[in-house]
Amino acid sequence: MAYSHAKTVTKKALEHSLIKLLVDKPLDAISVNEITTGARLTRSSFYRYFDDKYDLVESIEKDLLQEMVEAHIERNPFALNGGAMATGLKFYRKRADRFASLLGPNGDRSFEYKIKKQLSKDFDQQYAWEDLTLKERYLEDAMLDLGMNMVKFWVTNPAMSEADMVEVIYGIMESGPTATMKKLLNES
């Protein structure tokens, strides 16, 4: 039991250190030494759990994707259920440091694709979308792109509340982005 706890604490310290470093530096420019220094651990501690920094990134991403699956977030882009949408947004906000670092300019470019792939799989299962036509797949991909861009912007701009984000999403779903922008500009 004590070893398991120490392992978890060590891995979390290394993950936290990398996430902090990604704010200012691209992954390729970060060394294992910088990660371990930030975590106040030795290089041997790092290599006990990870093969290299890319293995650490993969571990963080895998954990986030697993948390998404376990959270059972309602990902229905057509649902006009503010409570479910706010709950989903809180999921991302609670993990904003990890999402912002990994999806940001210094993070892993493939992570966005991994999230979209998971969301697409969820849509396929939840709505029996396995047999979509090419046009329908294109629309699904466009919706996922829009959603990903909104999440990326939102987790890096913490001043915007869940309620404000839900309002923007509803506006886009109900009226489209152009009409929503006009409405928001007229309100300010």
What this model shows, in words?
The protein has 188 residues and is mainly α. The protein folds into two domains: 1-50, Homeodomain-like (Arc Repressor Mutant, subunit A); 56-187. The protein is built from ten helices and no strands. Helix 5 packs across helix 9. The relative contact order is 0.10.
What is shown here, in short?
With 188 residues, the protein is mainly α.
Give keywords.
Arc Repressor Mutant, subunit A; 188 residues; 2 domains; mainly alpha; single chain
Overall number of strands: 0
Tally the structural domains: 2
Question: Could you name the ranges where pLDDT drops below 50 across 5 or more consecutive residues?
Answer: none
Could you say which structural class the secondary elements and strand pairing correspond to?
mainly alpha
Question: Helix segment count?
Answer: 10
Straight-line distance between termini: 56 Å
